[in-house]
Write a structure and sequence with these properties.
With 107 residues, this protein is mainly alpha-helical. Helices cover 50% and strands 0% of the residues.
Length: 107
């Protein structure tokens, strides 16, 4: 230990073998960090905890999402059904009209 003291020195005296070298001092005297943070002196000067951020749900587009549209406008279901039936009827009438013009008969 005497050789180590001569090489590195002690906290009280510097090294004799190295030029101007002393043992590094600890940065913290009190190493119990949780006790230090929770102490009254520290808690008194820190700012209070911020409230948790509120998370909002994604807004759905009612024009693309049928369930959201039905929640906003329940009549949409009947309206869409009527539109589909009307479209089918028009296609059928158009096909019959084209067959009649072409002179084809359906058996």
């Amino acid at each position: 230990f005497e050789k180590l003291d001569a090489l590195y020195g002690t906290w009280r005296k510097k090294s004799t073998l190295k030029k101007d070298y002393g043992l590094p001092r600890p940065k913290m005297i009190q190493t119990d960090l949780s006790r230090l943070i929770n102490s009254d002196e520290i808690q008194k000067v820190i700012r209070p905890i911020k409230p948790k951020a509120k998370h909002f749900s994604q807004k759905k587009n009612p024009l693309k999402n049928l369930n959201v549209m039905l929640r906003l406008n329940p009549y949409t279901k009947s309206f869409r059904r009527n539109q589909l039936l009307l479209e089918r009827r028009r296609r059928k009438e158009k096909a019959e009209l084209l067959e009649k013009k072409r002179g084809l008969k359906k058996d």
